[in-house]
Amino acid sequence: MERYPFAYDPSQPFVGQLSDWVSDVFYDLLPEAGFEVRDEQIYMAFQLERAYAEKKTILAEAGVGTGKTLVYLLYAAGYARYTRKPAVIACADESLIEQLVKPEGDVAKLARHLGLRIDARLGKSMDQYLCLNKLDKARTGPDGLAWQELYEELPDFVHSYETLQAFHPYGDRKHYPGLNDEQWSRVNWDSFQDCFACEQRHRCGQTLSRDHYRKSADLIICSHDFYMEHVWTYEARKREGQLPLLPEHSSVVFDEGHLLETAAQKALTYKLKHAVFEELVTRLLQGEIREKLAVLIDEAILQSEVLFEALAGHSEKVHGSDRKKIRQDDSLLREVSRFRSLLTEIEEELVFESELYTLNDYQLRIVEEHIEMIQKALGLFRHSDRLICWLDGEGEGATLTIMPKAVKEVLREHVFSQAMPLVFSSATLSVGGSFRYVADSLGMEAFLSFSTPSPYRYAEQMEVIAPRWQSGGSFEEKKETALRLLARTGGRALILFPAKEELARFKAELGSYPLAGAGTFYYEGDGEISHLISSFQREETSVLCAVSLWEGLDIPGPSLSHVMIWELPFPPQDPVYEAKRRQASAAPFEEVDLPYMLLRLRQGIGRLIRTGTDHGLVSLLSKTLWEKDEVRRSVEHILPEGVGLKAGENQDFVCG
Question: Which residues form the Helicase ATP-binding domain (predicted)?
Fold first, then answer.
């Protein structure tokens, strides 16, 4: 195929010619291939033309079924050909990446029906790859035989120490669908892996995949998390003589763009773990170092233990979140200060030690960078108004996470300042007709925007019910009601939970309940997510229980005929959202909790109707709907036009 799918005239602006071709695609080429092209889709195409022509940021709110993915793919791929730089398509999570590139996905559809050869490659997050060092550790553990088989299935070149003549990417999470999340966490890459000092890094699946996607001519498809990791580490990697995670690119599309803030916060975090610190600084003791430095290292290791014990004593569990809230007081700050003072002394001694050339330069640099990171992170404790912190895990696995509050500033400086088209695409970017909630949360000052509705006849295709509770909406009452409603639709349901805890409890208490007409129950976390989704879609009467599938899941047809919302998805009371509430102290519920919930609820409801022939049920098993009139009115307001909220006693909804 030639560089462009149309005759390009260099004397005329490229984007205008690209837009003309996109018009031909939607008016002529796709209808000839049997596609139903909608007015909303064509409207979006003309809106994106301006963003690409003027290299601006655009908030593109297009309802379910408008075919927005096809629109942004055509512009992104065409503009990539023009600039000779790939476009980045950043999805909210890994499951959405897989849906985009699956054999029946939108990339494949364009290639097949337009005769395009689109070079689309995946840049998955690092934790989606197998870590050879962690696998080796698992193989030597008490259940080592269980991991030996996985090790033996690795490509031959992984086991060879000869020069690589041929290799291919491997170790992707999706290649191990039988591992649940807990098992995968034992062998996947995590942020505490010291890749710079890893002797197996040149045979690592993560490293090889990076070399592969960097050569893409058209599209690199990654997650929001990975894109923000690229932004956050860009300067540091260049200073260290490394390539940035992503190559230079021509434009960025943030699919489900309203979720970028969460990814930005995640990327900007510092993570501290006592075991990692101890392992790193202990390396220095293996060399010929002076006694003073050796004593300081021992003292720092002891103080690190004391600090993490103090953190555990000052933390408390938060319902609905994995994050433990840390209570700061003078005694905790004193332990932080003591640890930092010891690190400062070690840094000073390392400068002197480096001049004696008794330590390995490479190992010394790694230790120095790790200590510098700890100093930056703990330095924020002196200014509690500038940090958000929490504790994960227990005992030796405890991890201190510290996040600067300055997410907006980083996005403003490193994302929105770029002279390139930035497209934020989603069915839910506005609240009450305004884009300010999303724009303000991201620090977005200047942007284009538009909103176009879904073409579906929701009043005919969707029913929304909300049972009233006779016993206050207890877990037991909700479970019994859920089972009756699932029997009504014969399974075919997606149950969305707001937190892992409630999903786990539902799974544990469901036990051997008989459910007439329903097949298998699938639970997020029991296997690789795209594999679970595929099984759910294939087995029509099955039920999929999930926490992370509020956005992007696209399963047309009868396999998904019922979306059950276990509880309204308000943000948790964890340190991240507590900080946002404090910033909006005048009306935290109205400015933080309610808009967040309504955006997420609209997304969840949007999983049901995916084509013009779909029909189904949305059931809201929420106590809050009947406890707060303001919440109920807000929920009714965001329902699709013509769809009302049907209320009644929970028995009223069993038949029909």
Answer: 27-305
310, 352 contact by CB (below 8 A): no
pLDDT of residue 355: 66
Average pLDDT over every residue of 346-373 = 77
What is the chain's Cα-based Rg? 26
Closest CA to 297 of 312, 307, 286, 310: 286
Predicted local confidence at residue 489, as pLDDT: 92
Eight-class DSSP state of 359: S
Assign 3-class secondary structure to 561-578: CEEEECCCCCCCCCHHHH
Query: One-letter amino acid identity for 588?
Result: P
SS3 466: strand
Question: Among 301, 370, 367, which Cα is nearest to 339's?
Answer: 301
CA dist 609 and 613 (Å) reads 8
CB atoms < 10 A from the CB of 270, how many? 18
Tokens of 20: 């003309």
Give the tokens for residue 133: 């060092």
Return d(Cα 539, Cα 362) in angstroms, integer: 53
Angle 64-40-262 from CA coordinates, rounded to 5°: 45
Low-confidence winner among 199-203, 283-287, 634-638 (lowest mean pLDDT): 283-287
CB 566 within 8 A of CB 623: no
AA identity, residue 13:
P
Residue 651, SS3? helix
Tell the burial category of 21 from Cβ atoms under 10 Å away from its Cβ (0-12, 13-18, 19+): middle
Q: What is the pTM of this model?
A: 0.84
Q: pLDDT tens digit string along 118-175?
A: 999 999 888 999 999 999 989 988 888 889 989 999 988 887 766 555 567 789 998 9
> What crossing angle do the helices spanning 291-313 and 330-354 adopt, rounded to 10°?
160
Phi/psi at 80 (nearest 5 deg)?
-65, -40
Report residue 450 as tokens: 């538009």
Other beta carbons within 10 angstroms of residue 393's beta carbon come to 13
CA distance 10 to 16: 12
